[in-house]
Structures are given as C-alpha cells and as structure tokens.
Amino acid sequence: MNANDKLVLAVPKGRILKAIAPLMARAGVEPEDAFFDEDARQLQFATSDPNLDIIRVRSFDTATFLAFGAAHLAVSGSDVLMEFDHPEIYAPVNLDVGHCHLAVAAPADLAANEDPQRWSHLRVATKYPNVTRRYFARRGVQAECIKLNGALELAPNLGLCRRIVDLVQTGSTLKANGLVEIDRIADVSARLAVNRTALKTRPGPVNDLISRFREAARAA
Ligand SMILES: Nc1ncnc2c1ncn2[C@@H]1O[C@H](COP(=O)(O)OP(=O)(O)OP(=O)(O)O)[C@@H](O)[C@H]1O
Ligand SMILES: O=P(O)(O)OC[C@H]1O[C@H](OP(=O)(O)OP(=O)(O)O)[C@H](O)[C@@H]1O
C-alpha cells in the first residue's frame, strides 16, 4: 500500500483525460494548475482536497498502479480493466465517457467469406491478448496473439495476420485501411475503479469519492 497518508487517484493521460476533466470538477476534485499543462514533467499533483493527490500515467498503467495499491483509485477504460482482470480491482462507477467498442476485424474480402463456425486456430494482432484469447476460447478457438501497441490496422495488409482485435469508435480507421468489423466483443467506456484493500481499510474517504464521481457522472 502507498506509504504516504494521502489517497492517490490515477488518471490516464490522452483522450480520456480530456473527457473526464469536467467530471472531476463536478466531483469536486480540482487539481493544481500544472496538471492541465501537457508539457509539465511533474507526474503527481495536489488537489483542492488536502487528502487526495492525482497521478497522470499511461492508460494501461492506471490498472497496474491500482492493482498493486500504489494508487487507491483510478479512472480506467473498461477495455484496460478487462485486459488486466485483476482481483484487487473493483470498478463500481461507469463514468459514461470515452465510449467505443472492442471488435474483431478483417480485410473486407476475407470478412465477406468469413464463417466463424469454421474457425479452429487463428493468428490475431492486438493490444489486448488476454481479452482476445478469452473471446476466442469461448468459441472453442485457439488464438495466437501478436501483441502490438498501436497502428494495428496495418497488420492484415502487411501479412502479419488476417484478423485484428482493436478499439473502434467511428469506424474510420478500419475503413481507411480496407478492414471491416466481423464481431463486436464488448462496449467500452471509462470507469472509476478502486483498490479493494483500500476500500476495506479506508472505507470513509474511498466511498466518499465513489459517491462524488457517481453523482458527477449522473449529472452529465
Ligand atoms: N477511438 C478510441 N480509440 C482508442 N481509445 C479510445 C477511443 N475512444 C475511447 N477510448 C478510450 O481511451 C483509452 C485510450 O486512450 P489513449 O488513446 O489516449 O491512450 P493510448 O494512446 O492507447 O495509450 P498509451 O499512449 O498510454 O499507450 C482506451 O483505453 C479507451 O478506453
Ligand atoms: O474507429 P475510430 O474512430 O477510427 O477509432 C479507432 C482507432 O483509434 C485508436 O487508435 P489511436 O488513435 O489511439 O492510435 P493507435 O493506433 O496508435 O493506438 C484505435 O486503436 C483505433 O485504431
């Protein structure tokens, strides 16, 4: 557990941060000014609440800080929480921002003749190997996952694999790369998640923040 007495909230830099800034304000979590300066090298920030600090980390790392108790709360995409699937993480609040979905996609010519009943062993490029393996295993299919960290839509066209599992929002990245969606795996949105041990040992302040974020999401 984090050594200092303050609670720590991990938030992802990048697109979710822009979406949750108004929500944080409604929840009464007001970070110091440097937090909104993208060029600042500072990583931990005080807030208007003397008992709460915020850290700004990469989106997958929100779950890592939370799982090991280095952060007590985190804003994370449900895609990240699904991939991480850690028993110490409990995600009680759907923040209803950062909407997109996880999908299987393939080149249009392959998708036109695709018969999922005939899948037995597939190679799939993805940023989400655990979600992907679980999704295919439920269908009795063994998925060999090639982990990429971005630009997944290149993989089928360059012969790395025929299928990908990636996030889709507008669908324009798939379309621009000649891919189509074959199946939708899960809807995605940002969640407020907490470390279960922190919830047990510091129920007062952790539950208070859960309630404030829940109200802020409802008021949106
Ligand atoms: N169109 C989208 N594409 C990707 N992520 C989206 C989209 N819409 C919402 N999200 C959410 O935003 C999160 C990713 O944020 P962002 O793209 O800023 O980080 P990233 O570039 O994937 O992460 P990092 O740079 O830390 O590896 C996803 O985990 C998802 O929950
Ligand atoms: O359906 P769309 O609206 O086109 O959005 C989906 C795309 O956005 C994300 O990529 P991102 O911009 O994060 O770049 P990346 O490839 O580096 O992950 C995601 O991985 C898809 O590629």
UniProtKB/TrEMBL annotation:
A Gene Ontology molecular function term of the record: ATP binding
Enzyme Commission (EC) number: 2.4.2.17
Subcellular location: Cytoplasm
InterPro entries in UniProt: ATP_PRibTrfase_cat, ATP_PRibTrfase_HisG, ATP_PRibTrfase_HisG_short
Gene3D superfamilies for this protein: Periplasmic binding protein-like II
Reactions catalysed, as given in the entry: 1-(5-phospho-beta-D-ribosyl)-ATP + diphosphate = 5-phospho-alpha-D-ribose 1-diphosphate + ATP
Alphabetical UniProt keywords: Amino-acid biosynthesis, ATP-binding, Cytoplasm, Glycosyltransferase, Histidine biosynthesis, Nucleotide-binding, Transferase
Entry's Gene Ontology cellular component terms: cytoplasm
Comment on protein domains: Lacks the C-terminal regulatory region which is replaced by HisZ.
Alphabetical list of NCBIfam families matching this protein: hisG
UniProt family annotation: Belongs to the ATP phosphoribosyltransferase family. Short subfamily.
Protein name: ATP phosphoribosyltransferase
Species assigned in the record: Thalassobaculum litoreum DSM 18839
Gene: hisG
